[in-house]
Write a structure and sequence with these properties.
Helix content is 27%, strand content 25%. By secondary structure, it is α/β, with parallel strands linked by helices. It folds into 2 domains: 18-233, Alanine racemase (TIM Barrel); 250-385, Lyase, Ornithine Decarboxylase, Chain A, domain 1.
Length: 386
């Protein structure tokens, strides 16, 4: 069903299906056994879906904790009333430690100077700062090298203002079944965790499986899994689809702001790269552009849906608008396309009738991944929670 309500100030919007979000959370929860917890990743405004509203839905569906990328993202959740643990997935700048302590955020830690600053900030407020010890098992992005983990923890553990709430790593090839690099990385992580425990230090909650890993590597669920893109109904890898079907959460729609029937030969958009080929062709203007996350590289290469039918985008995509064409005259090979009217609903991402345009379809056209497509559409478009 296409939602036809839209913001009063602009005929373009993103729809967020919270029923689908709940189903996806429960689908991932069903993979977990015993007391294994689920940390839901809501960084980048929940991949463009709206962090606060999504976190509330996830909490009601069984989320145990949340993860963000920045201090400000964590503060936003706290100020919205999210009381569950909030993990920052990388180590923030040292100047942010007072804010981290004030809002009870749990940052990744892998640098001694940062750890000292965090501990001192906690002591000054009469509390203890909880952190997650990050171990690098081969991705070479953040963390202490796995074979130096025990000695690094000895340095951190001297401070009375610090408490290790968790120990984690991130795998570079968790989305590849039967992968040798993943096996080696998991072996190194397990050895690092064991070495810390053997030295008499707490490791807190151990977590390493990300979204594809939660599906493909159940033996690595440990104490907690970190699930991100899959919660929003987007597969982290095609191989995961056969094991865990998901429901897309985001749709992108607009209403036509103008419809014209130009004479043959008329050009469309910057550079006049497309011209009207014959009589009976309508050109409709859609108020979404590359400032809204619709990549300019899709110009002349993508389709949209109107009345359940595919129509082609024509001309160059502009900053705030793009154009589509509808041929109202039937051909032997196909029926006439729909007649366009100002105010008609256009589906850029999502389902209309029996047709669907998916994030994956658009990502493939762009030569990127569905993560980027979703994040891009969340930048400027108003969100309607359904």
């Amino acid at each position: 069903m296409v939602v036809t309500r839209c913001p009063d100030t602009r005929w373009a919007w993103v729809e967020i299906d919270h029923s689908a979000l709940r189903r996806n959370v429960k689908a991932y929860k069903s993979l977990l056994k015993g007391k294994t917890r689920m940390l839901c990743v809501v960084k980048a405004d929940a991949y463009g879906h709206g962090a606060v509203s999504c976190a509330r839905t996830m909490r009601n569906a069984g989320a145990d904790a949340f993860a963000v990328a920045t201090v400000d993202e964590g503060v936003e959740l706290r100020e919205a009333g999210i009381a569950e643990p909030i993990v920052i997935l990388s180590q923030p700048p040292a100047k942010s430690v007072r804010t981290i302590v004030e809002y009870r955020l749990e940052p990744a830690v892998y640098d001694a100077d940062f750890a000292l600053a965090l501990g001192e900030a906690a002591v000054s407020r009469g509390t203890v700062a909880r952190y997650h010890f990050a171990i690098d098992t081969g991705m070479t992005r953040i963390g202490v090298p796995w074979n130096e983990a025990r000695e690094a923890r000895r340095v951190f553990d001297f401070h009375r203002g610090l408490e290790c709430a968790g120990t984690f790593t991130h795998f570079a090839t968790a989305d590849v079944p039967n992968d040798w690099d993943w096996e080696l990385a998991y072996k190194h992580f397990s050895e690092a965790v064991a070495s810390i425990r053997d030295a008499g230090m707490s490791v807190g909650i151990v977590h390493c499986d990300n979204t594809p890993g939660t599906v493909l590597h159940p033996n690595a669920h440990r104490d907690m899994v970190r699930v991100g893109i899959g919660l929003y109904g987007l597969q982290p890898a095609r191989v995961c689809e056969r094991y865990l079907p998901l429901d897309p959460v985001m749709s992108v729609r607009a209403r036509l702001t103008r419809v014209a029937e130009p004479p043959v030969g008329s050009g469309v958009s910057y550079g006049l790269t497309w011209r009207v080929p014959k009589d009976g062709v309508q050109v409709g203007t859609v108020p979404i552009g590359y400032a809204d996350g619709l990549s300019r590289t899709l110009s002349g290469r993508m389709d949209v849906l109107v009345d359940g039918q595919r129509l082609h985008q024509v001309g160059r995509i502009c900053m705030d608008q793009f154009m589509i064409a509808s041929d109202m005259r039937p051909l032997l090979s196909r029926p006439a396309q729909p007649e366009l009217h100002e105010g008609d609903v256009v589906t850029v991402i999502g389902r209309d009738g029996d047709e669907e345009i998916s994030m994956d379809e658009m990502a493939e056209l762009r030569g990127t991944i569905n993560y980027e497509v979703a994040c891009n559409f969340g930048m400027r478009l108003d969100k309607i929670n359904c």
